[in-house]
Amino acid sequence: MHLPLKNAMKLRIFIFVISAVVFYSCRDSSEKTGEFIFPETEKLSPEPIADISKNISSPVEIANLLQLLEVPFSKNYLATNIDANKQSTNFDKSLKLGILGADLGYLNMYEQTGSSLDVLSSIRKLAEDIKVGQFFDFESIKRLSKNKSNLDSLLFVSIDSYSQIDNYLRSNDRGQFSALIIVGVWIEGQYLATQVIKQFPDEMLSDRIGEQKIILDDLLLLIRPYCNRDSEFASLCKDLMDIKDIYQDVSITYTQGDPLIEEKDRGLEITQTETSAVEMSQEQLESIIKITKNIRDRLISNN
Predict the structure, then answer these.
(1) Considering its fold, how many domains does the chain have in total?
(2) Can you give the residue range of the structural domain that contains 292?
(3) Residues with Cβ < 8 Å from 86, sequence gap 6 or more?
(4) Going by DSSP bridges, is the β-strand pair 267-271/274-279 parallel, antiparallel, or unpaired?
């Protein structure tokens, strides 16, 4: 399916936007050995990390495409078994903070106020445990969650909260927790998309899932410096690499279009246009659905 990139970006179901530049190409999956070992890798400089993470979008964006497709709300998609009080390590707390952030956005868009407040309470507990609770304006989010007419404000507050957390963690040599939050958000977004498409097949949604091949490269850039840190990180890195292997034969091509020039109040606005085409077989999609569910369910069962 060919879809204008401008529209694709607007409707993108996933929580954060693709970085403008892909910094590394995919590694050849044939270079596997019997033992899974990540090479020691120096941490990325602040500039490419910022390029990847500065555009973390609000978790509320996840439901935009679902509502466009008129997909009904389902509580079955949510990570309801996560107990914030039973997360024993900062690794688990950070990863679950991302997962629950995606669920919160889904609930808010579908106006599930009661359930969203429960999730918000868990998010608050996890954020405070890893010393970033000061960046969440919980009272404002709670108030805005009750009024869908304030969705734009909720979007801004959510983006601002996650952006401040990301900046704070990276500036205080705690970038591993920022990476975990981002990975957690992505995993839950990927899970929601792949579960929805099983019940509501749609070509646009299939394309968005296929394009995660590119986002995975950026995620691996963020997480790779920590892959040898301990067994928890090593396991998560292997999970992401296993998903990447499934994407190996998914093809994405781009065709450059002419820039659009529009006159705005503050001058001319130039929008780069191009179309994207995703080639992904039904068998590949089913494999992505299966591995995503297996990994996500195992991660949220670790209480």
Answers:
(1) 1
(2) 2-12+45-300
(3) 303
(4) unpaired
